[in-house]
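User: Run a structure prediction on this.
Assistant: Running it now.
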Amino acid sequence: MSPESANAETVAAEYDVIISGGGLVGASLAVALAELPLKIALIEAVPPEDTDNSSFDERSIALSRTSKTILTTLGLWPEIDSAAWPIDRIHVSEKGRFGTALIDADEQGIDHLGHVVKSRLLGKILWQQLAACESIDVYCPARAEDPVITEHGVTVGLQQALPQRIGGSLLVVADGARSLLRGQLGIGAEHKAYEQSAIIGNVSIDKQHAGHTAYERFTPEGPLALLPGANGIYSFVLARKSDDIEATLALGDKEFLGVLQALFGHRVGVFRALGRRHAYPLYLSAATAVTSDRAVMIGNAAHGLHPVAGQGFNLGLRDAAALAELLSEAVNGSETGKEASAVLSAEIPRIQTEYREWRSTDQRNVVAFTDGLIGLFGRQGDAAGVARGLSLLGFDMLPLAKRSLATYAMGQSGRLSQLARGIKRNAGYSGSGSA
């Protein structure tokens, strides 16, 4: 959009960074920027305590080891820790086929591969932190729309009780895979329907043991993931063909437990009791670009993934950590907010270029990895099944292959942000990499 198309409405407030989307990724970015000499606006359509807020629902998230480090560096882990459950092993298998693969933290010489935490809990902790940040103005409930590029930055309209416009040097789009704002910026997205929906919920096991193994079980109907929790309670993500989803959801608890048991077997015991079940459609979404004039896409607005392997939030959090570091580098050494604002405005083109170069490989690889898993295990026939069994068996016998996949799954491959390496400075994150 050109400066000439600027809306004539008065800009009510000016910011350095405007973040559209206060879900887990957008809120994490805001918290990461809070100590910089910058003024931040965070816009969220649905209050976090609202049960309709899908960002903060009852889903369990498998936090990678790198995500834990980022959250620890931001000072959030002490509050998360008491409700987080460690993952020490990842077990991969296919129903009705030989061959399994196991990645074990002990074999990798580390304490844990990751942790399980409830989305709603993490969202609550993030928003509590936001409330304590004087440099962040939160607009909620509100929705950003009608972005206009001006001579010195970008303005957006706020769809809220009292409509107004605000301006900033940079607009960060973090409002999900179906982002309308992304489209208004002229950025398209490629969508691939998997013709599957995910059913999520909790299930208790008769063995009241403290299991620390996460399971990924591939079946002809779709993958089934089990994430461990306290007191023998596991969170499950069951992918089913979309045509079967209504009938599956309509099953009584006993019948649904029978479905889970038949698909998973008795490896962890007998499934005894269910919590509430929810379903949502599965598809791949990839933005055709992650930057445009004065705007950057992060999280699901850049890449929406199938939940297989649990990579979605972890990838988005790495986006946020990388962008926070680049913004910090730009204003490093600025002694006043006015000085930092001027420096940042001039540095936006460079920041966008570096962000694209930094994040493109990680984003592309994770999208290809998750989509490839669905394609690989979706192929029917004995020949394909035997090949997968041999691949799992071979993988399980190769320590170097395990180490490589473990490093990848933990989010520790490629260039890591300073937050991901546990480095934080009170004045921001320098680009030197020194502590």
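Residues 337-378 form the longest helix (42 residues).
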